[in-house]
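User:
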Amino acid sequence: MDGTSLSQIGFAEFVGKLLSEVFDAVVTSQLDQRRRLDELVESARLSEEEVASRFLDDAQVAAELASLFPAGADAGSPYQPGSQQQAEAPPFTSVLGLTLKPGEDFAVQGAEAVLTESGAARIRSAVRLRLAKSYLSALRSLVTRGAPQLLIDSGKVAAKLTFQLASGAPAAAAVPSPAFSVFSESPAGLRRRFEAPAPARLPAAENPFRLAVRQASDRAPQVSQLQVDVYGEVEIRFKTLFS
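Assistant: Predicted structure:
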């Protein structure tokens, strides 16, 4: 809340709105966590190919490729096929379980061999699936053990206010509900409004005064001109109960 943009409102309306939005924030947080946990469970059911296409981009594959084969695995990179006399270099077979085909995946040029476009593409695909398998294994392990969930056990809400005793009932325009928000808006589709019921009021003749409040802000440009009776603080302690 910004003290420079709020008109004075009744104390009961302020407290009701504060409680309402605290409850709204707690419920929205739990809904968001539940949605994300459900997404994790659904992701754990995917195949390695689906994980590779949905969650792994080319930059991640390129970084893993450079880590596994620093000498390079692009088209035109040198390649030494394995034989009885010498080991394969780079070791694509032992690391990826991938056997390259002569003439298709690599071409012999004189005494040396280089990777072809087809061979480089097969290597990238194998690295992508390797990453997907590792990601999927960790995700399934997390889901099996149980993903952590943050629960709000208790808390405290404090608001510094100015209190002023005003005469008469508040005007209808003095409660700008749409613009008055204790907390920022939650993501679309998750936020629900839980408005506090309007407090019962005594007839004007029996209750000629009302306690008006607004947020106290030392940075407000009109602080020096404010005429208030009391500076104070409202403190609300709450505890979360799950039904």
